[in-house]
Amino acid sequence: MEGIPLTSATLASSGRHFGFGTSSVSAGVSDAAEHLASQLKRVFLDSVRTASGQSVILPAQAALNTGFQEAGRLALCGDDQVLPSSAAMREADELLTALPQWCVAPVPMVEPSGAIAFEWDLGPGRWLVFALKGIGTIEHSAMIGLGNEMYGTRNFAGTLGRHEIALLSDLMQAEV
């Protein structure tokens, strides 16, 4: 095998280990290994990229803004509408930007209580709602397949946890 360079690369990982990390290639490897490591890094980063800055969430952000303005008009007219707090609006924006890139954009709603809900309705037996109140929690209700209903509350600190990602993934993949 003379004349064929051996190719190897290792990537350091900070904390979690996914089989490769996202830091630079170790010293002393061939150009081919560096290129391979670069491609693997790009594929990995693309797979975990969130919807932040993606055009998929722009309509949801615009609808959230419209819902907030409508809630303000209803509150001024004396309806039983509570305006979402600034903390709820911040959490709503954080949720939208934390959505995985592969996720369908939700429909945002401002509830009469002032909570902000995001709904994915993908047909009979396939829906999910996340609700935020600006108090550091995320409530969910879901039906992922007929008879498979789930409800609960989790802590929310601006990013989606494993449970929320799993619900979204199951919803997007569920068959009726």
In short:
The protein is 35% helix and 18% strand. By secondary structure, it is α+β, with helices and mostly antiparallel strands.
Describe the protein's architecture and organization.
- With 176 residues, the chain is α+β, with helices and mostly antiparallel strands.
- The chain folds into two domains: 1-48, no CATH class; 55-173, no CATH class.
- 35% of the residues lie in helices and 18% in strands.
- It has helices at residues 31-48, 58-76, 86-98, 162-173; strands at residues 107-110, 116-121, 126-132, 137-144, 149-155.
- Strands 1-2-3-4-5 form a five-stranded antiparallel beta sheet.
- The longest helix is centred in the middle third of the chain and has 19 residues, at 58-76.
- Residues 5-25 and 44-50 have low confidence and may be disordered.
Q: Could you give the count of β-strands?
A: 5
Largest sheet: 5 strands, antiparallel
Q: What fraction, in percent, of the residue positions are helical?
A: 25-40%
Please state the CA-atom Rg, rounded to the nearest Å.
21 Å
Q: Using the alpha-carbon principal axes, give the shape.
A: globular
Regions with little confidence, pLDDT below 50 for 5+ residues: 5-25, 44-50
Task: Please state the structural category.
Answer: alpha+beta
Alpha plus pi helix count: 4
Mean pLDDT, to the nearest integer, reads 75
Q: How many separate domains make up the residues?
A: 2
How widely separated are the two ends?
Answer: 54 Å
**Strand line-up of the largest beta sheet:** 1-2-3-4-5
Query: Which band does the percent of strand residues land in?
Result: 15-25%
| Helix and strand sequence | HHHEEEEEH
